[in-house]
Amino acid sequence: MDSAYAVELKGVVKRYNEILAVNQVDLSIKTGEIFGLLGPNGSGKSTTMKMLLGLVQPDAGSVSVLGADVQTDPVGVKQKVGYVPEAPRLYEFLTGIEYLDFIGDIYGMQTSEKKNRINEYLKALQLEGREGDMITSYSEGMKQKIALISAFLHKPKLLILDEPLNALDPRSARIIKDFLQELKTQDITTIISTHVLEIAQAMCDRVGIMYQGKLLALGNMDELRQMAKLPDSGLEDIFLKLTGTGDIRAVVEELLK
Ligand SMILES: Nc1ncnc2c1ncn2[C@@H]1O[C@H](COP(=O)(O)OP(=O)(O)O)[C@@H](O)[C@H]1O
Ligand SMILES: [Mg+2]
């Protein structure tokens, strides 16, 4: 594998019975890139991300992550990757600090480094003072912050973040965005799925648009504009045109009449 790539998918297919969730996807993501995975609900984003982690086995094709084959070295890959799933399930009867401590131990972190990093993140994300409360008592946004900290804690080389900013207040979303930019300078790769198109437009180097299991379009903003033949447009127009849902506008206009 070419080490310039953090992730390489070749001819990847995943079926769930009659549903073709991912259909012949080829995708190479460069080391240090912030890559946005966009697409309407059910287009195959989460399934693609789970295949990168070895949580879902592809029916065909190959998945290579940080130079390792996910199928032959699933543990090695997980050690180097931080993952925030779409709906993180935390151990809610632990306190925030107990949970993060537990995650740090799973990754074999040294006690002092673990404690320092946990405290820094709790402070940055304004959870200080609440870390001793049980996670059940947290708001959705606070739980999301704990999930993000657990993904960042062991300094992974690759972050796979499945719609991570959804429940966050603007300030915290901004902190995460800036943090990902900072990690980029350390050659850490981020794959982020989102349906908030402004986020993708503002922070991603390249974007892949998925639709019905296929990678419909791939490129930076300029390339996507050319592909959609919309030279002056933002990502929303391009997205709607490429996914054939451009008539949403007409529907909305009709509703507003
Ligand atoms: N565990 C599963 N069992 C059956 N079907 C699934 C499962 N996970 C996802 N799917 C189906 O695969 C398709 C892609 O889903 P998903 O990857 O979650 O899309 P996205 O994340 O883009 O919303 C959808 O049709 C979804 O219903
Ligand atoms: Mg999803």
Characterization of this structure:
By secondary structure, the chain is α/β, with parallel strands linked by helices. It folds into two domains: 5-219, P-loop containing nucleotide triphosphate hydrolases (Rossmann fold, 3-Layer(aba) Sandwich); 221-257, no CATH class. It is built from ten helices and ten strands. The strands form two sheets. Strands 6-7-8-3-9-10 form a six-stranded mixed sheet, sandwiched between helices. A four-stranded antiparallel sheet has the order 2-1-4-5, with helices on one face. A hairpin with a 2-residue loop joins strand 1 (5-16) and strand 2. Helix 3 packs across helix 4. The longest helix has 15 residues, at 170-184. The protein starts with a strand and ends with a helix. Bound molecules: adenosine-5'-diphosphate (ADP) and magnesium ion (MG). Residues 45-46, 86, 162 line the site of magnesium ion. Magnesium ion binds next to helix 1.
Q: Which key phrases capture this entry?
A:
257 residues; alpha/beta; Rossmann fold; 2 domains; 6-stranded mixed sheet; 4-stranded antiparallel sheet; 25% strand; globular; binds adenosine-5'-diphosphate; binds magnesium ion
Radius of gyration based on Cα positions: 19 Å
Which ions and ligands are bound to the chains? adenosine-5'-diphosphate, magnesium ion
Q: Count the domains.
A: 2
Strand coverage percent:
15-25%
**Helicity level, as a percent range?**
25-40%
Output mean pLDDT. 89
* Number of continuous helical runs: 10
Number of strands: 10
CATH architecture grouping of the largest domain: 3-Layer(aba) Sandwich
Oligomer: single chain
Q: In the CATH hierarchy, what is the class of the largest domain?
A: Alpha Beta
For this structure, what is the CATH homologous superfamily of the largest domain?
Answer: P-loop containing nucleotide triphosphate hydrolases
